[in-house]
Design goal:
- Helices cover about 30% and strands about 25% of the residues.
- The chain is an alpha/beta fold.
- The strands form two sheets. A seven-stranded mixed β-sheet has the order 5-4-3-6-7-9-8, with helices on both faces. Strands 1-2 form a two-stranded antiparallel ribbon.
- The longest helix is centred in the C-terminal third of the chain and has 14 residues.
- It starts with 16 loop residues before the first helix and ends with a strand.
Length: about 240
């Protein structure tokens, strides 16, 4: 179904503590229903063989979650969009299945779960979609079911912890000044521990280009309401 307009859907603006309490319970219990009611099943623009629950009206969903769910301390709906870096990684994995075949894959900051799903389609032994937003966990499971694969989910922050994986895939995570160095240090540590690390990114502000080697690049149609162009050049990188 198409996204609801501002003020509609499962979560209408409420006043009073009793209504707020009911809304909190709805957030916890009705996440799949919220996702279905505010997205449509669409193909990812550069990975058309995969279907996802995506927002086709970015502004309406973003405002809905920011203004209403934001009151409950929930993050923006990154899970409702197929971001350029994730699409680049998914495309690369599908076109180069030997990258993940038979491997345990970790999709970090997974959002919609697109990259984990692509890994399973490419023959990974398992894929863990990890994102601190519990909405993303539900979205990943729902999207995996759409595509006939199974993924695992986790909402714990993996940064700084040992990864129980052979391959670590990271899409669109170098957008924040404080987060980027933490992510990079952890990825360097994981590669030193024998993990294969690949990064998908369209040139976000804090991407550490001097530490990376580009291995592929794609021109990916994106949502103009959320990006600064209609097409983003996104690359896949490995640590240098």
């Amino acid at each position: 179904m198409a996204p609801h307009t501002h003020g509609a859907g499962l979560f209408q603006r409420v006043t009073g503590s009793r209504q707020q309490a009911r809304s909190r319970r709805s957030v916890i219990s009705d996440i799949p229903a919220f996702i279905r009611e505010n997205t449509r099943v669409l193909a990812a623009s550069h990975v058309p063989e995969l279907q996802l629950y995506l927002a086709d009206d970015a502004v309406s969903l973003w405002q809905l979650t920011e203004e209403q769910l934001g009151e409950l301390g929930l993050p923006p709906p990154f899970w409702a969009f197929a971001w350029a870096g994730g699409q680049a990684l998914a495309r690369y994995v599908l076109d180069n299945p030997e990258t993940v075949r038979g491997a345990r894959v970790l999709d970090v900051a997974s959002g919609s779960g697109l990259v984990a799903i692509a890994a399973m389609k490419a023959g990974a032994a398992s894929a863990l979609a990890i994102d601190i937003d519990r909405f993303a966990a539900h979205a990943a499971l729902m999207n995996a079911a759409l595509n006939g694969v199974e993924v695992e989910t986790n909402d714990e922050d993996p940064i700084g912890k040992p990864a129980q994986a052979d391959v670590i895939l990271v899409g669109d995570l170098f957008y924040d000044r404080d987060l980027a160095p933490r992510v990079l240090a952890w990825l360097i540590e994981m590669q030193a521990a024998g993990k294969r690390v690949l990064i998908g990114d369209p040139g976000r502000t804090y991407l550490p280009r001097d530490k990376l080697v580009q291995i592929a690049a794609y021109d990916i149609p994106v949502t103009r309401a959320l990006e600064d162009a209609e097409v983003k050049r996104a690359a896949v990188w490995r640590l240098g």
